[in-house]
């Protein structure tokens, strides 16, 4: 039972018109309250991400077909004719991720402290550190990669899920939590570019397989949505003004939707083409790599869109919605801002 779920002990007393104690005592977790609706959808997204993570791991790591495709994608990065990009990614990737992680943690802390949103700061930092620790724990101690296809030694090590993609996606989620609602679109646009670049670098450098990036996206969604749901459970969310942001749609939502649809669509088509191509065809590695890049980019964009949709019209860290006594318990109408 959360702190705002305590029942009254002094008998029935009619609440004031917009008394916050009534919200704190009863309405905070009413079946149809705003906090309850936000919590339920965040928890559903978290549990769904865990289930999809298990499906991706089982399909790509625990089957011979999945292992052949991912190993072919690693070989195809060299057959794609972009050796210079791969070598450049290999040199810069560790510095980008490590330095970016340190800078991102400082930025998240400063934003949260300056806004005096200490609970949001804790959730943002917990999302980044918790996702990264869980990634390393799963990769090193829990999950394995049994060799089902007789792969060479350098392709046997388990890299699922990707730590590099986990850093990028968790920082983006943490930024969504601490920035004001009106700046969430800008944060999404900037971080989505960075997360996509990190994911592309990790594949081009041969550090990770396509499934590693997809698994990292799902892991961050599971951790971030779970922690954000805890905020809602404690009544620390409120409706945001229903304003329209045409620039956000034009420069953020629109491009992310295009990348998600085209990336996932093209990736599935290329993957099907790979599966239908005869064994030994010289185009197989190239098809595998291109399918992996497209699917990884599409999955990252889709994960970003999902977070934006889950937190749409949700002001994290806002004051609870006041309830009023008018027969049935109903929320105060949200103010429309044109």
Quick structural summary:
With about 350 residues, the protein is mainly alpha-helical. The protein is built from 10 helices and 4 strands, in the order ααααααααβααβββ.
What report would you give on this structure?
With 338 residues, the protein is mostly helical. It contains ten helices and four strands. The strands form two sheets. It has a two-stranded antiparallel ribbon. Strands 3-4 form a two-stranded antiparallel sheet. A hairpin with a 3-residue loop joins strand 3 and strand 4. Helix 4 packs antiparallel against helix 5, helix 5 runs antiparallel to helix 8 and helix 6 runs antiparallel to helix 7. The longest helix is centred in the N-terminal third of the chain and has 32 residues. The relative contact order is 0.17. The N terminus and C terminus are likely disordered.
Set out the fold topology:
Elements lengths: L19 H6 L8 H27 L3 H16 L3 H32 L3 H25 L20 H16 L5 H21 L5 H24 L3 E3 L6 H31 L7 H27 L3 E3 L6 E3 L3 E3 L7
Antiparallel strand pairs: 1-2, 3-4
Distance between the termini: 38 Å
- What level of helicity do the residues show? 55-70%
Integer-rounded radius of gyration: 23 Å
Give the biggest beta sheet. 2 strands, antiparallel
Total DSSP E strands: 4
Structure classification:
mainly alpha
Going across the major beta sheet, what is the strand order?
A: 1-2
Overall pLDDT metric: 80
Described by its quaternary structure, the protein is single chain
